[in-house]
């Protein structure tokens, strides 16, 4: 007798093995898993963002440097930064991403954009006073990431990270969040190599005394020890004359600036006021008249996009180093 095997069970077994009627995506094509990282002292789990919003040039250019323009829902860029955007090497990326607002970052703008993730700094984007905080965004299902540099101002237990290490931390952690760790590693390693070159080539002797002028007449607005320009000046071979001020961007008294006798004044160029008008004010301001910087007409312009925490901080340091060398410093 010939034994007959039932066809249906065999076919069913084949379907179970081969997946009949279903398309199973290969593992590499599946959505990446969420990652958990520490940001400003808090452990946060981030699903992969697909509708990211970045605020101001610091956030936006960190994203662009990592090749993430196609993951962005849009940017919020204050109108004062518009001239600096036009000068940016990332201009093509800026033009490829929608500008959601030319005002400060707001909760309403982010929600209306259906964002799922926001990148900004504390008190330079996120703000209790303006009602847009990581906690409030989280309550409506929107994750956020704060610049590590700005953790100095956040919460009851501020986190102090030197500005360059803060930059590297952001780039590496953004690489983790968006699953582009190889890109982040290459970018950070390249920046570190350029920093090492600057450090090796710093001249000996006393560093040039440098004052960074952002704005202000009654009181100058400048960079203390906790913001990127302090690192830029140091890398270039100078010394920030307010490096002992334990702050990020802050106002100081003119008297302390005059007493420091800066040899160079670095002027930040962005759209609130033409940079030449700022320099004209500094030249005409009587208390500064006898300082070496004004007496010898030593002004160096720093683009806004290079002054805020971002990958172009190293460009700024290289340019300032070349300027100081041209002065014999």
From TrEMBL:
<protein>
    <submittedName>
        <fullName>Iron complex transport system substrate-binding protein</fullName>
    </submittedName>
</protein>
<dbReference type="InterPro" id="IPR002491">
    <property type="entry name" value="ABC_transptr_periplasmic_BD"/>
</dbReference>
<dbReference type="InterPro" id="IPR050902">
    <property type="entry name" value="ABC_Transporter_SBP"/>
</dbReference>
<feature type="domain" description="Fe/B12 periplasmic-binding">
    <location>
        <begin position="51"/>
        <end position="329"/>
    </location>
</feature>
<feature type="signal peptide">
    <location>
        <begin position="1"/>
        <end position="24"/>
    </location>
</feature>
<keyword id="KW-0732">Signal</keyword>
<dbReference type="Pfam" id="PF01497">
    <property type="entry name" value="Peripla_BP_2"/>
</dbReference>
<comment type="similarity">
    <text>Belongs to the bacterial solute-binding protein 8 family.</text>
</comment>
């Amino acid at each position: 007798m010939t034994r007959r095997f039932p066809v249906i069970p065999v076919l069913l077994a084949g379907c179970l093995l081969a997946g009949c009627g279903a398309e199973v995506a290969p593992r590499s094509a599946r959505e990446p898993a969420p990652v958990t990282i520490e940001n400003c002292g808090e452990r946060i789990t981030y699903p992969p963002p697909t509708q990211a919003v970045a605020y101001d040039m610091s956030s936006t250019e960190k994203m662009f440097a990592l090749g993430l323009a196609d993951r962005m829902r849009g940017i919020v860029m204050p109108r004062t930064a518009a001239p600096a955007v036009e000068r940016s090497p990332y201009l093509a990326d800026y033009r490829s991403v929608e500008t959601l607002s030319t005002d400060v970052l707001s909760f309403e703008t982010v929600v209306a954009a259906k964002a799922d993730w926001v990148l900004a700094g504390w008190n330079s984007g996120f703000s209790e006073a303006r009602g847009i905080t990581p906690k409030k965004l989280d309550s409506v299902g929107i994750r956020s990431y704060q610049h590590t540099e700005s953790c100095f101002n956040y919460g009851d237990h501020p986190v102090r990270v030197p500005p360059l290490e803060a930059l590297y931390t952001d780039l590496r952690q953004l690489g983790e969040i968006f699953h582009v760790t190889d890109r982040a590693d290459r970018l950070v390693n390249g920046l570190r190599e350029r920093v090492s070159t600057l450090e090796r080539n710093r001249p000996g002797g006393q560093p040039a005394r440098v004052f960074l002028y952002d704005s202000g007449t009654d009181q100058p607005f400048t960079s203390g020890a906790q913001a990127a320009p302090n690192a830029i000046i140091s890398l270039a071979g100078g010394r920030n004359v307010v490096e002992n001020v334990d702050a990020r961007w802050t106002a100081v008294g003119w008297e302390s600036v005059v007493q420091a006798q800066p040899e160079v004044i670095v002027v930040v160029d962005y759209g609130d006021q033409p940079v030449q008008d700022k320099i004209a004010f500094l030249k005409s301001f009587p208390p500064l008249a006898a300082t070496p910087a004004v007496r010898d007409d030593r002004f160096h312009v720093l683009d806004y996009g290079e002054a805020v925490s971002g990958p172009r901080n190293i460009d700024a340091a290289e340019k300032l180093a070349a300027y100081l060398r041209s002065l014999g410093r």
